[in-house]
From TrEMBL:
Superkingdom of this protein's organism: Bacteria
Domain Enoyl reductase (ER): 11-362
InterPro entries in the cross-refs: ADH-like_C (IPR013149), ADH-like_N (IPR013154), ER (IPR020843), Gfo/Idh/MocA-like_OxRdtase_N (IPR000683), GroES-like_sf (IPR011032), NAD(P)-bd_dom_sf (IPR036291)
Cofactor(s) needed by this chain: Zn(2+)
Keywords assigned: Metal-binding, Oxidoreductase, Zinc
PANTHER family on file: D-GULOSIDE 3-DEHYDROGENASE (PTHR43350:SF19), NAD-DEPENDENT ALCOHOL DEHYDROGENASE (PTHR43350)
GO molecular function, one term: oxidoreductase activity
Source organism of this protein record: Thermogutta terrifontis
Stated family: Belongs to the zinc-containing alcohol dehydrogenase family.
Lineage, uppermost ranks: Bacteria, Pseudomonadati, Planctomycetota, Planctomycetia, Pirellulales
Full protein name: Putative zinc-binding dehydrogenase
Pfam families: ADH_N, ADH_zinc_N, GFO_IDH_MocA
Length: 709
């Protein structure tokens, strides 16, 4: 299928051939009939991508701050690699479309195949022939509403949410500043709601269009408009002002205060300067609200991804219900999106449509992409390279399931340098990442169906780099298919998953490696050699993990939490240092913090060692991330961020520094691939089982460790 993508580094647009996306759970597979290019948001995103590094830095100072923090903690080379990896990404474009449901996941409750829907969401309602859309980000299209009009639903919901925040009443006087797409839709919705509407915009054609859409007054946003609005409102001033402009200027915010009556509402829907002048806002006691997207549910993974709707008795207007309300206004003829459409392009001319918007060679407003049916649009596998024949049997066919940040930043660059590796297939849920990453690293083909890899006779090794909840089921399937498996940590997030993996290993005798790389780090090897044979160890491992965004997928309870997802690394390091089994674990968590995300853990091992893990998410981002102290037999050692090692035997102190941190990723992968030659596991599977059980116990998923012999 065709999908429009943009390169983050240089802004280049590409109409790519992408595998059909997966559909499962609460997702709908929608064949797109029309999508709308947002002249405000998408133009801003596209223009940012076309800026150089300095321009991007000026536009996004928040990201510059993150880079500086990473530079301070991780060093120059690690920071450069991270920045390069982010710049080398491709991103989907589009967030408002309409089409027909052709398939639905088993958890879908309120839609059926063949139904027409409007869809919303960046990265979801893409400019693509097919989209996989969560149920609550779709709304049914009423009979008689064309898909081209329904494709405006996302922008209509944004305008509608701004109007709801303005809390307007029938007969009130409302001024809309900025008559682009959002402003025009706001004018029509306000008119349908029984309000008197005035529109302000510097472009005469847009003012004329607002009058056609129901505005009583349309003026340029200058000082003369203040007296005109005062006269129009019979000397009162506007009851509400809705700002839908897109400008870096502070003028709309300042003008809104002049237009407003005493105690009016000012609602920011667009993107402008927000240096609010205190004097007029104070003297009139104005209310200023920044409206958030298309309504309650936005940026809440529980709502958007997992389909947990809000009860209408408590939250009447959610994202989905705003979409539906807008479509019903269109069906009634109260809102007419069609009068806003100035251009139509078929999807195969999508780049031409964006160039028109970016360069402004002619006036435009609503640009709609249309999607004629194609018989070849439904492929779930795309060949990226011509088949290589004959295949070199001295090499290993490597395929990837998942291709997120870690795979792109760490695993794939390492494997690309190894002569014994031959990339076969790459599978991701959306297909876009599989195609763009697959092309970059030279994979033979990309797909969205895991079975393509499991049934591929030329795939010898499968790397599983998906979200954590999928690891164990995929490990079992890959082992049963006779593949060697490298699974990123964690191996499992529940006891049932771990039992399934253990049973599959016993049944198949398959070759499994879990990505516990720290034990392969060069300084870790020196540390172990130094402490070996000195008796029971006293180990303290402090991890300054830092917070993650609330909407990060790792914060989703369905993915197990951070202790399961990350602390397993450190429990494996204890197993590596002690060469012993855990007997007992004690855990403490700070008050007010989930025990699955933060805590301190004291582990007693069979050889008498005591290991203390401090996993903290509330430390300073400028402080070192990992510090390991080991004391045994009158000797001490400190390993800091896998970059600095201090060894003290009570007589002499030795310090070793690396230019950059080395956590052992390259050595772990090389050792794993080498171990395939003699079919002997690099690390005993029992170690993975013990470490995972200990991790589940630390997270409170397992009550206590099982007794050992």
């Amino acid at each position: 299928m065709y999908q429009l993508l943009q390169n983050v580094r240089n802004g280049r647009l590409e109409l790519a051939d992408i595998p059909l996306p997966q559909v499962g759970g609460n997702r709908l597979l929608v064949r797109t009939e029309a999508s709308l290019i947002s002249a405000g948001t998408e133009r801003m995103v596209a223009q940012l991508a076309r800026k150089g590094l300095l321009g991007k830095a000026r536009a996004r100072p928040d990201l510059v701050k993150k880079v500086l923090t990473k530079l301070q903690r991780d060093g120059l080379w690690a920071t450069l690699r991270s920045v390069q990896q982010q710049l080398d990404r491709w991103m989907p474009l589009g967030y408002s479309c309409a089409g027909e449901i052709v398939a639905a996941g088993p958890a879908v409750r309120h839609f059926r195949v063949g139904q027409r829907v409007a869809c919303a969401g960046a990265g979801i309602a893409n400019h693509a022939e097919y989209n996989a859309v969560p149920e609550l980000l779709a709304a049914p299209i009423p009979d008689g509403v064309a898909c081209e009009d329904a494709a405006y639903a996302t922008l209509g919901a944004i305008a509608l949410q701004g109007i709801r925040n303005a809390d307007v009443q029938v007969g009130e006087y409302v001024v809309v500043i900025g008559l682009g797409l959002l402003g025009q839709l706001a004018v029509q919705i306000l008119k349908a709601a029984g309000c008197q509407v005035a529109g302000l915009d510097p472009v005469p054609a847009r003012r004329e269009l607002a009058l056609t859409g129901g505005a009583s007054l349309a003026l340029p946003p200058d000082s003369a408009s203040i007296s005109a609005v005062r006269t129009w409102t019979h000397g009162l001033g506007a009851d509400a002002i809705i700002i839908t402009a897109a400008t870096s200027s502070n003028a709309p915010v300042e003008l809104a205060a002049e237009l407003a009556r005493d105690r009016a509402r000012v609602i920011m829907v667009g993107v402008t300067g927000m240096n609010i002048p205190r004097k007029p806002y104070y003297e009139k006691e104005l209310t200023f609200i920044v409206s958030r997207s298309y309504g309650p549910g936005r940026y809440d993974p529980d709502y958007e991804e997992h389909g947990h709707d809000y009860p209408p008795g408590y939250i009447r207007w959610t994202e989905q219900r705003n979409l539906q309300a807008f479509l019903e206004l269109v069906a009634a003829g109260s809102v007419r999106p069609s009068i806003l459409t100035t251009h139509r392009f078929p999807i195969d001319r999508a780049i031409e449509a964006f160039e028109l918007m970016l360069h402004g060679r002619e006036p435009y407003l609503g640009i709609v992409l249309t999607y004629p049916s194609r018989e070849t649009a439904s492929a779930r596998r795309i060949e990226l390279l011509a088949p290589a024949r004959p295949i070199d049997k001295a090499t290993l066919g490597v395929s990837f399931i998942g291709a997120g940040n870690f795979a792109q930043a760490v695993l794939l660059p390492i494997l690309k340098k190894l002569p014994q590796v031959r990339f076969r297939g790459i599978v991701t849920a959306s297909g876009m990442t599989a195609q763009t990453v697959g092309k970059k690293y030279g994979f033979q083909w990309c797909a969205t169906d895991v079975d393509e890899i499991l049934n591929d006779s030329d795939t010898d090794v499968v790397f599983i780099v998906t979200r954590h909840s999928q690891h164990a089921p995929l490990v079992c399937r890959a082992l049963e298919a006779g593949k060697a498996v490298f699974c990123e940590k964690p191996l499992a997030i529940t006891p049932d998953q771990l039992e399934a993996v253990q049973a599959t290993l016993q049944k198949t005798g398959g070759h499994l490696m879990v990505g516990f790389n720290r034990r392969f780090a060069p300084l870790a090897q020196e540390l172990k050699q130094f402490t070996k044979g000195r008796g029971p160890l006293s180990v303290t491992y402090r991890v300054n993990a830092g917070p993650i965004p609330r909407d990060h997928w790792l914060a989703d309870p369905a993915e197990g939490g951070r202790i399961i997802g990350e602390a397993c690394h450190f429990f494996d390091f204890f197993a590596f240092l002690t060469d012993s089994e855990p007997l007992e674990l004690q855990r403490l968590s700070p008050q007010g913090v989930s025990p699955r995300d933060d805590g301190q853990f004291l582990v007693r091992y069979k050889d008498g060692s005591i290991c203390h893990l401090i996993y903290s998410t509330n430390g300073s981002p400028g402080f070192s991330k990992e510090r390991i102290e080991v004391h045994a037999g009158g000797c001490s050692a400190v390993l800091e961020d896998f970059k600095t090692l201090i060894l003290d035997d009570g007589i002499r102190r030795h310090k070793k520094n690396l230019w950059t941190a080395d956590k052992g990723h390259s050595r772990a992968i090389a050792a794993f691939l080498a171990s395939l030659a003699d079919s002997r596991p690099l690390i005993a599977p029992e170690t993975f089982i013990h470490v995972t059980l200990l991790t589940l116990c630390a997270a409170g998923v397992v009550e206590r460790l099982p007794a050992t012999g």
